[in-house]
Amino acid sequence: GIGIREVLLTSGCPGTEAKCIVRVEECRGPVDCGWGIPISEGLACVKMPCIYIPPENRFKYVWKMLIPNKTAHILPNDSAIMEVCRDTHSITFQCETQENGNIIASVKYTVYATTETETKKSRRIETGQSRRITTDAILVFVLLTGVIVTVGVIFAMILMILHWAVVKSIWESKSGQDNQDKKLANKSSLRNME
């Protein structure tokens, strides 16, 4: 297909530049560019562009309506952009960009019928809503869990403050018992040494 490429120089550039552009030139690649995306798509009509580079008028554009198991129907439109209104069934279009009688690029578009567009739109909405519901449920669960844990910690701290004397006596009794155990251990070790 047609395109533009920059030719870069990686040594010998002016100043301290590591890379510099030497020239910009047209390049050619595979002719079949596959399936294109319309530049605008509404419920009633679709605008589709051919592949081109400026100036647009240097190329010839051939639009075809592709019919399964039949030869393509060439349309009278010869502009780079074609607008098509939706029909009762899907239609596939192809645009060939030609220069000097040679095809240099080709792109295809499928214009879906009005009913198919509405069906696809409702599927997207349904899928988006189900994802949103799942995400919302997870967020609510995490939020509730966080609130419950926070309330529990605050409740435990309030109980400790209110019953500080009991907590303090438990700690002192444990530390006092530990001290007595240490004294007994020290006495027994002294007896063993004698």
From TrEMBL:
InterPro entries: SPACA1. One of its GO terms (cellular component) is acrosomal membrane. GO terms for biological process: acrosome assembly. The chain crosses the membrane at residues 138-166. Keywords: Membrane, Transmembrane, Transmembrane helix. It comes from the Eukaryota. This is Sperm acrosome membrane-associated protein 1. The lineage of its organism: Eukaryota, Metazoa, Chordata, Craniata, Vertebrata.
